[in-house]
Amino acid sequence: MSINLKTSTVETREQRLGTIIGWDGKASALADESAYARGECGGCGTSGRGGAKARRVCELTGPFTQGSVCSEQMVECQAGNIRDAVLIQHSPIGCGAGQVIYNSIYRNGLAMRGHPVQNIRFISTNLRERDMVYGGADKLDAAIRAAFERHAPKAIFIATSCASGIIGDDVESVAKHAEADLGIPVIPLHCEGFASKHWSTGFDATQHGILRQIVRKNPTRKQEDLVNVINLWGSDVFTPMLKELGLRVNYVVDMATVEELAQMSEAAATVTFCYTLGTYLAQGLEQEHGVPQIRAPQPYGFAGTDAWIREVARVTGREDKVEAFIEREHARVRPKVEELKKKLAGLKGYVATGSAYSHSLIGVLRELGVGVDGSLVFHHDPVYDSEDPKQDTLTHLIENYGEVENFTVGNRQQYQFYNLLQRVKPDFIIIRHNGLAPLAARLGIPAIPLGDELHAFGYQGMINLGEAILAVLQHRKFHQDIAGRVKLPYKKSWLAEKDPFALARAQAE
């Protein structure tokens, strides 16, 4: 699927990939409806290859939403986490409310990676009522120049907002004039929250701007031992694994420097811990600069990690080193996994995370012998930007680890989460975005919040996750006590409802 870098505005995931945020059924049925399998969808749309639009999967749309996040917030947690850059939010001050938690995550991430700990560098243009009438371009220009004077950054990013999109500020012109004056990249990132129904478009918006204005266009050299790793803030697990193949890691986007972003075009390959986060940037690097992306299952569990590390070795010309590494890791990890399986026998888990990440975590749970009858993914991409079936994480899950009977796509709605947990009654949940965890606690179900997204990564990740499950189950009695003493804020009719999408189906009738 060709990425268009001629325009400064990224194409939304709905337009490009056919992304949905409402679906309920068996995992195999969703895989059949998606673009890789090209199954029939009862007239919902057609699949496309070679640049055509992705399949439009049938989608359930509810009458309201209790809350979520938006594309601008994903720009904040990517462009706002580049160590020698500044992010300007061209928005009302309220759009920056999330920066308290983002600053904490950023500082923790820097410490885990061994970087000097610093605060994030954000500036808000603080759009107000007068600006909504007369425009905020002057405020934006002043903010850019203030950012340059205060921080001497190597690049300045501008995140648009619903407010700046509504009034139609000419962000492009302001950025171009400032870039000419200051001599550094000034990069508009169009991420108005109303433009896309799912926040993952914000990842793409940041990566689009980086591809257009930071990545080195005509590198004078290739670093044949350098691998781009598209990641968030997690611990450094890629370095020890890729070091076994004689490879170095270039972590992007979060906590990278502008130079580390620029050198991505010089790398031997690009990998990511999650295709939801990384396929846009990986596809752009391959398309524009010939840097191959690793087309393999994600590196979780034995099957996924084996296939992934072998493909890394093949692409980088290090196949002579990979089999010995795999053999050593299997010998080290398998006995520990077998011990964990005995301790975890009979348990049932539930995964509530982003889509491709959830597919992989379910695989790890089943490697550990944990039953998984259900999962909530926060959105579903029927195809990724490469259009390569080797990156079809949902089909990889089904073919290697079996069916998931209750597989749900939903945009983090509390009222639906109650019904979802009631119908499978898990012993614990694994969750990435913690807003749903308190509801699980009210039902007596402990949660494992994966603050470090790489906790379950690779061979060691199976052991890490198994031990985390055993640890959280020690607190099960505490959660049962909570469940016995709290009242849920729902009507009896909804508490008795079996279908989490009953309101959506009623609206469609």
| CATH C-level label of the domain at 333-505 | Alpha Beta
Count of helical stretches = 22
Task: Give a short account of the largest sheet.
Answer: 6 strands, mixed
CATH superfamily of the domain at 333-505: Nitrogenase molybdenum iron protein domain
Gyration radius (Cα, Å) is 23 Å
Number of strands: 13
Structural class category = alpha/beta
Question: Can you describe this structure?
Answer:
The structure is a single chain. By secondary structure, the chain is α/β, with parallel strands linked by helices. Among the domains are: 71-213, Rossmann fold; 333-505, 3-Layer(aba) Sandwich (Rossmann fold). It is built from 22 helices and 13 strands. The protein has helices at residues 13-17, 27-33, 71-76, 99-113, 129-134, 137-151, 162-167, 171-182, 200-213, 238-243, 258-262, 275-289, 301-316, 319-344, 355-367, 393-401, 414-424, 437-442, 458-473, 476-483, 492-495, 502-508; strands at 22-25, 85-89, 122-124, 155-159, 186-189, 226-231, 248-253, 269-272, 348-353, 371-377, 406-410, 428-431, 447-449. The strands form three sheets. The protein has a six-stranded mixed β-sheet, sandwiched between helices. The chain has a four-stranded parallel β-sheet with strand order 3-2-4-5, with helices on both faces. A three-stranded parallel β-sheet has the order 7-6-8. Strand 9, helix 15 and strand 10 (371-377) form a beta-alpha-beta unit. Helix 13 packs antiparallel against helix 14 (319-344), helix 13 packs antiparallel against helix 19 and helix 14 (319-344) packs parallel to helix 19.
